[in-house]
Amino acid sequence: MTTLMPIGVFAHATRLSVRALRNYDRLGLLVPARIDADTGYRRYSLEQFARAGLIRRLRELEVPLAEIAEILAAGTPDDVKAAIKRHHDRVAVRAAELAAISGRLDSVLAEPTRWLHVYERVRAPQSIARLTIRTPLGGLAELIGPAYTRLFAALEAQDVTPAGPPGTRYLTDDPDELTVELFVPVDQPVRREGEIDSGELPGCLLAATIHEGGYEDVETAYRSLGRWIAERDRVPAGPAEELYLVAPGPGVAPEAYRTEIAWPVTA
User: Fold this and answer.
1) Which domains does the chain have, with CATH numbers?
2) Is the pLDDT of residue 77 over 80?
3) How far apart are the C-alpha atoms of 47 and 39, rounded to whole Å?
């Protein structure tokens, strides 16, 4: 039996917003595998991960939706690459970025076959120091490092010692308008100063998996969680989270990074 998932789960797993998915359905770019005739609820299949990933990559390249429709209609990977090359030539000023993203398209075009182990864990409520940033997904990598530097500097100034690895929570799911909470667990009070504030991670059940290495293929972790949640008919109960067990830093090679990707879910 084909595993189907509701639009909310598919949006989390592909890192596309619900609004974008509805628009792609309207335009015929990514039509749900099934639409309930009575309720209108959209459901997507695992087989649609690759198409969703390709659309997201092409939008990162700022390919217009009309051209994406032509690329998707091209059919074969070779035709897709040729269409992308034509766009690449028209925007030579972004040649380096386009080449880097185009080089990863093979894995996006291929049907995902690698699934990560997913486990459950219960988290008790945890006090945190927090900082919130707002940015498109494409600008997150540039902002997140300096933001963590400010957060850790504020903790040091207050003589507060972290009580666990840092993390992020994606408070909104629109890639064009992300609100991201950066947090560090603490066991003592944190004074509010400027953009730094105190908060709490809610106690909950988490479905989680471990992503190892750099973040170019982090989609595998999100897809694995989406599949696991769909197959068990679970419901996401909060924003997606990333916990940096081995975080980027001086002397840390990207292949050594270890990140827990997790979603709060219903029991």
Assistant:
1) 4-109 (1.10.1660.10), 119-264 (3.20.80.10)
2) no
3) 23
Residue 81, pLDDT > 70, answer yes
Q: According to DSSP H, which parts of the chain are helical?
A: 7-14, 18-27, 49-60, 65-74, 77-90, 95-102, 105-109, 140-157, 219-231
Beta strand 241-246 pairing with 167-170: antiparallel
CA-based torsion, 99, 102, 107, 108: positive or negative = positive
Identify whether the C-beta of residue 29 lies closer than 8 Å to the C-beta of residue 72. Answer: yes
Q: What type of residue sits at position 209?
A: T
The whole-model pTM stands at: 0.69
The encoded tokens of residue 234 equal: 């679970």
Backbone φ, ψ for residue 154 (5° rounding): -65, -40
CA distance 48 to 51: 5
Quote the DSSP letter at residue 238.
Answer: S
Pair of tokens at residue 87: 């766009």
Token pair in block for residue 26: 């309207």
Number of Cβ within 10 Å of residue 207's Cβ equals 22
Strand partners, 244: 259
**Residue range 31-55: mean pLDDT, rounded:** 91
How does DSSP classify residue 236? B
Distance (Å) of CA 110 to CA 48, 49, 104, 114, 180: 11, 10, 11, 11, 30
